[in-house]
Structures
1.
Amino acid sequence: MQVIGAGFGRTGTLTLKAALEELGVGPCYHMVEVLWGDTSRLGLWQAAANGEEVDWKRVFDGFESTVDWPGCTFWELLMEVFPDAKVLLTVRDPEAWYESARNTIYASLIAGQKGELKEGNEEPPSPEAFQMIASLIWQGTFHGKFEDKAYAIAKFEEHNEAVKSRVPPERLVVHEVKEGWKPLAEMLGVPEPQSEFPRLNDKVAFREMVGLPALA
């Protein structure tokens, strides 16, 4: 494990997954692996969400980096398990982050629990995946109060400040997607690619992927 992503989902993490893999630190673990990849690790994630001890090297076997949930919840533990890994904190304007999260990952949870997801570009996630996500993120991180915008933003900012204050400066990189390749390439000590920086999984693309209706 070379890079531990500590930023919440909807901070450009699918873009970062693609970028890190192009920079040579892939495969990169992301929530899409839980939803549509190797679901054999789902039980391990549920155990972690329940507060049980898990073998983190087994969880990330075969991966060189991680971004997004579920990994970002456990960034502090992962720092100890992988002491040579850099910590990558992806950040975003809090208001924009909340609106994006509310209209994508949170909306998909509510629709999925009601059985209202239509056919999207991917198969609907399993009930077990929705259960893990609900317990880890919506109950575990936001304590069932995500619909309270002020509370959710406060948790977002609290998390970011905790990462900034607890990670040694030499291990931490704070990154906004608009900064592109340079901070990531410098973090890894590799040349910047000549290719265009990826831009993936905007709100419209996410809703199409999971089968949510278009926003008015």
2.
Amino acid sequence: MSYVPERALICTPHSDDAEIGAGGTAAQWIKQGAEVTLVVCTNGDKGSEDPEMTSERLAGIREKEQHAAAEVLGFKEVVFLRYPDGEIEDTKEFRRDLVRQIRRVKPDVVLTTDPQRRAFYQHRDHRVTGQCVMDAVFPLARDHLNFPELKHEGLEPHKTGYIYFWGADEPDTFVDIGDTLELKMQALMKHASQVAAEREAQMSKFLLERAKEAGEAQGMDAAEGFRVVQMRR
């Protein structure tokens, strides 16, 4: 798909999920002039096998890693909502936080994880985040009577054109990332706490193969696939 938005907002459950699911697409759009903002919903304070690691220290490490990855890809901004890892809930507070970012950034496209994935196991934060992002886009960010208190922050309702869900069982839209696949991998490797040295080669091989397989089916060198929902305007 050759479409390039003027502004895009990525809402990721954890640091590193966006690079895995949409890092090449984000980099490709940025190269073509798009402004891309990243919202990280959790602080990632549980994802470690190190028995000496603490949640507080891990959260700080993961924010630093995300900033480094964002610099590689060229994100305009990174916003951390800092909900505890594994504890994202479908609450009014969380939905309001998402609506706040949508109304602030005013994206043409919002990208997030597909909550309807069934063919593969999925972290609960991914399911809840995807569903809440979809609800935030429509109807919550669009209708002025939802979260009217945000008007006091100068944030007016916004209509997003599309949602791109990564990790879909049956993607229907593919973005050519042949020119940005290497950037995607460089950004992912900045998340060193999640990609142990002994797993780096294995993870790289898996993601490279997946991108090339998706691309081959579409006549591209490499691609990322999404389930795209066009929103009512």
3.
Amino acid sequence: MIEINKNIYLVPGANHSLFPYCACLYLKGKDLRLLIDAGMGPANMTPYLKEGFDLVILSHCHLDHRLTLSQFPPIPVWCHEMETVFLENRERFLTSVGLLRGGIDMEKLYPGITIQEFSIQRKLNDGDSFNLGGLSLEVFHTPGHTPGHLSFFIPEAKLVFSADITLTAFGPFYGHDFSSINDTIYSIRKLKALPAQTVITSHSGPYQENLTERYTAYEKVIYQRDRGLLRHLHQPRAFPDLLGKNLIYSKYREPKPLAQWFEQVHLEKHLNRLLELGLVKEKDGLYRT
């Protein structure tokens, strides 16, 4: 564990906290010890298991944020109320993220990983707050990545844990069927307005400099993707003609079928967005500016 501030620890994930793992946050209050997310991987469990913890809060339902949860001793699990169904119902999860539609079998792509169901003991909402004893935790609903994605603010440390609002150069990820570009924009701006001095994410950071500029640049990637798609639609194109062109990913990392599926979903959402804005028209299955 890496101490970020007094009684606030970053728990790095395996594989440099990249999928199918994530970094987690451990808060050691005098009255309550909690872990935010549980995707660090078995090899990184030992330090906080020795410290002990009273509950786990999942920022959202994605596999890399709950991967290690099945190896914990029995412990209460909390999440946003909108994420509950995806954690308690495997088929609903697979359908809602679009893996069934895409013919993607995550358990075959990542041998040894099982998509399990977990019972949720408490459903959180925007504005909930908790006194842990010397530390307080404020809950922010930041949808877009998933419908019930949560971020967290610790006012004593002026620290934000933004989960999968990662502030990386790649930009926001909304490559699942239940993701939303408009909600993502809303959530970026919501976090940008917080009086934070440190931002930790599930896959990058900590960030402590130029935070306003980082949020702005992160949001701008969305509009860069819009413009990239528009450039390809100066002449009529069918949607399949846009696939496999690295319009979202500069390089398809392995497993390639998964990356290409995520790119397809991103493009679907951008195309629908541009249609709604009146910047693209469709006729007989062809799209053009």
4.
Amino acid sequence: MQVCLASTVPPNYQGGLAAYQRLLIKLFSEKAGWSGSIAYEKETVLGLPTFSQQLAWPSYKYPLGLLGRLTRPQWSRLASRPKTHGLLEWVLWQAWEDGSSQGSDVIHFVGTGWDFFGFAMLKWARLAGARFSVLPGIHPKSWGDDVLDIRLYQQANAVICLSESEREHLRLRGVALEKLVKCPLPPMCRPDGDARRFRVRHELHDRPCVLFLGRRDEGKGYVSLLRAWKLVLEKVPEAVLILAGPKMGDFSRLVSQNPSCSLRDIDVPDETEKADALAACDIFCLPSAHESFGIVYVEAWHYGKPVVCGTAPACRELVQDGVTGYWADQNPINLSARLTELLLNQRLRQKMGMEGKMTQMKRFNENAFITTHLEAFGCT
């Protein structure tokens, strides 16, 4: 089986979509013995953080052709008007120089319709007689479910969904139910995190720690957590909040309202630092309002940590309230109450963490991931 994995974000970049691609390449190379290639759009990857990792499949950058360079300034305008979507799709079919997708049995696109590149890959799949599948990684009602996005998904042979709520949402948006395949994701973090190394490096000693790992914006609950932390410190003054992830705005005023000794900012951690932070924390907290799946909760469970999630339907489908963690909202009083209860009760933390660990091992494992993709790729 030859697979062409395509995206506007290459697998050696940081973020969830890139991590998903690395996992797919690793598992299908090692366990299924498949070969493949990686295709991505040359013009959209500058400025993203990268890390060095050898990938089993060769990669190809697809440059824009003459038509693509001439029309690109108009793509967003055409995309915003459903009446011009047919014209836009035709333009996108011709926009990139064709290349290495020929000979593939499956072209698997990771992205949305508004990434534009997916329509070119769809055309190349049809020309090659290949099956075309999509992993959209959407945030329902926020990103990835516009009319243009749905137009791409409707033409795919299969669309991989990361939760039942996402699957139902896409069905209601017009994607045929038989095309929608639900995929449980295994942890994508390193399994060898070192808690002691992290605690020594950041001078944490035995202080109780809460880890936030995600985009630092309101949607992910970053603002609410900073406001809640002042209330947490009234009950647990020795607690430390570890902040990790890309900064999406200037929240320095909110940060400064908390004592500096109660915070540790590790910026955007590499894979080793991320695993160490997961191993070292006592609680993982991401009170997100929008999430396509929530792989970081699964990764926290992998390290036996209880989690606190937000109101995103995908997260509440994932986290069993009061069993593997707590549901919360972005009200600082409610959020602080959940965190305080866990910080003051070690036995409860351990019990929830172990329940989460068992859930991860039973439901979110590599075999389930491979089986789902075999179905989407038409191999079952």
